[in-house]
Specification:
This protein is mainly α and 211 residues long. It is 69% helix and 0% strand.
């Protein structure tokens, strides 16, 4: 008998298991680049806000950056724009919507430096931006505009309480100087001492309103 008739068919070679496709990386938005650039600005300074370093940090190629921005300069302009929108325009809108009473809005303004982690993060960004503004005209212009807008908002509150334009702006400058100083010098004093300073300034504000 032919032996080949009793041979079993050869088994087909085992197929290698299919590799499961990795999920596609979500495409980065301009906001993701802006947020990453802001974090680097705060932690390392403006000289480290570079496209190649940001791309490495975000795990993408430099080509991804150029889908959203013409160059580094445009990214920096967008960083400043985003900061102004968040820390000035949106903040002012929230204060105005919280109360129609200018006195309450002034009290809310005074409380801004003491609002926990949100205040700490805002102060770190502000400090980094002001350091950048000391050596860059574009950043300096953005900071000057933000300061003027904030002082103008506070002055409007005093004007609503019956003070003349010059008097309202002078009082607004004093209030704003406290808010900026307390924010940027948060390490000066314990939490209890900072609260004590806030109460002292609140008493001064009451005298401002009584004059």
């Amino acid at each position: 008998m032919d032996e080949t008739a009793h041979r079993l068919p050869k088994a087909a070679p085992a197929r290698a298991p299919r590799r499961r496709a990795e999920p596609a990386r979500p495409s980065l938005t301009p906001a993701a680049w802006i947020d990453a650039a802001t974090e680097v600005l705060v932690d390392q300074g403006i000289d480290h806000v570079r496209v190649d370093l940001l791309a490495t940090q975000l795990g993408v190629t430099r080509g991804s950056f150029y889908w959203h921005f013409r160059d580094r300069g445009e990214l920096l302009r967008r960083v400043l724009q985003a900061w102004r929108e968040r820390s000035t325009e949106q903040l002012t809108a929230r204060l105005e919507s919280a109360s129609a009473d200018p006195r309450e809005q002034l009290r809310d303004v005074l409380s801004l430096p003491l609002r926990g982690r949100a205040a700490v993060r805002a102060a770190r960004i502000e400090l980094a931006l002001r350091a950048w503004a000391r050596r860059d005209a574009m950043a300096r212009h953005a900071v000057d505009e933000a300061d003027a807008s904030r002082i103008g908002y506070i002055a409007q509150l005093f004007s609503a309480l019956g003070f003349g334009v010059a008097e309202a702006r002078a009082r607004a400058f004093l209030v704003y100087s406290y808010v900026v100083g307390e924010s940027l010098l948060a390490a000066q004093g314990s939490p209890a001492q900072r609260q004590q300073r806030a109460r002292f300034v609140a008493r001064l504000l009451q005298q401002f309103l009584a004059d």
